[in-house]
Amino acid sequence: MIHREATVENLARAMLVVAVLASVTMALSTGANYLKYLRWTSEVKASLVSASIKPHGTSGELYMDIRFTAPAVGYRAEIQSVEFTLKGAHGDVGSYRIVVPEGITHWDEHGVTAEMALYSEIHKEHWPDVRSSRWLQVDGRLVVRLYLPGRVLPARVPLTGDVDMGGAR
Amino acid sequence: MRVVLAFGIGAMLCCAVACAALSARSFLTLPVWVPFLPVALAWFACGLRGMTPERLLGTAAISIVGAPILAAWIVSLPVPAEEEWAVAFSVIRHSMAVVIVVFLPLCLASMLAGAAVRGALEGGILRFPRR
Question: Which of A12, A20, A34 sits opposite B27 (nearest CB)?
């Protein structure tokens, strides 16, 4: 009877040890993915290489060259769109969203840096303000689709920079 | 008392990892039900160990109360300091919901199953294989 009781207690202890070891293994595997994601979010950045305004008919067009850099942690990233507000001397001069079509993003061989050239028409009602503004700034974010092991996560990377107004005048 | 603490802390660790894994399930490479298995096994072990009902409830209380706090600490540990509290509160809120809806019934069922198996072994209904 005593022997049987000791066996049951040992079995219970062994089960607890197995459960704790299984949990620690799971924590390590999930934690590694989580740490990769945190590294990605802390090191990812988007920069406006150049931006310029050119008149086009009764309105104008904004041309932008964007560089996107993300650490190679093993997750695939896909640039989906650029959302931004143009800020000028008269305040906000329109909000824009450019959907990035497939094939226009040029990735380097390591899949770390991507470059793309985009353009957007300036809203007609904002064109006079844009044209007369002394300075113009892009304030927005790059929407990136990040492929994590469990799901696809939209990430927003800040994007700011000055617009060259030389061509608008 | 030492047994209650040892089994309570062991089960709390398993429950906290499961809560953290469910909060960060985007990073989980396994099916979502897998984190429940070690927790159920730990509570089954508590029931199998053989304790008075009060001590068994004490073990359950340690694991159930401590798990969301430990899960919040685990998830917010590598996060930058400015986001640490926001992440911790989000994990605590999520973990408390999971604990109330899923882990509390699972805890009682697993402990009762463990105690039932122990009772069956003691009563001779179940036997260990002879060597």
Answer: A34
